[in-house]
Design brief:
With 266 residues, the chain is mainly alpha-helical. Helices cover 86% and strands 0% of the residues.
Amino acid sequence: MDAQLLVLCALTFVINLIGALGYAARIAGVRTRRIAVSFALFNILVLVSRTSNSFQQPFLANRIEENLKAGGGNLFVDFQILMGSATLAAIVGTLAVPTVQRMFTRAVQHFHEHRSMPKLLLHVFAKGGIGYLKTAAAAPSMANVKGLAKKAAIPVGTIIMNVAAQAFLTVGVFASLYAGYLNPDFRLTAQGLSAVINGVATILLFVFIDPYLSVLTDDVMDGRTTDASFRRAVVWLAGSRILGTLLAQLMLIPAAMLIAWIASAI
């Protein structure tokens, strides 16, 4: 594995890790009863994710160009490694949810008290904030793990849609770039067609999955659903996220061939 691929794996890991930690922000919002503040703080991490994404795509495009100039290469293996780093990030993010939600809870309380982002950042990187990481560290609760054996706290259809949405999100950019590698004459067209796959994921997420999770969050706030049931639903969604990234590896070739065909047919 060369240095460029290591950098790409790191960027992919960061992007997907932050996405997985979104569940921790939602749990912290429910615990503190300050959903808006929790998501506002999570948006700081989103900025890091978007910055990583802005570097990832040019590096990927450059790698494809270099492979084409060299007359070949094994980009399929490279992309499988990159999507493997996405799966690893989803697993790490899921395991880190208990720890991160405690840290988010502390951050929300601190921000609500001082109402200053600079003070919060100073607190996070100060001795007290770093020391809190040691006390906040926690493994996933066995009660939540055993709860998976019970009836899902979220509709099976929603879980399946989340698997599909995460698979499409993971494979979208990779498939469009790989399609340009398969059909070099239409590289720019293929790269622009990543929206064909990402658009499906966006519809699933914003029309079906996020609204349901938002309603479930409101139900917890109103006392119509227990915290345990809500956490179990989050575990199911986090697990389906992992499955989605694994499914993406199987989708790479079919999705790339579809995009390559569309690019040449336009």
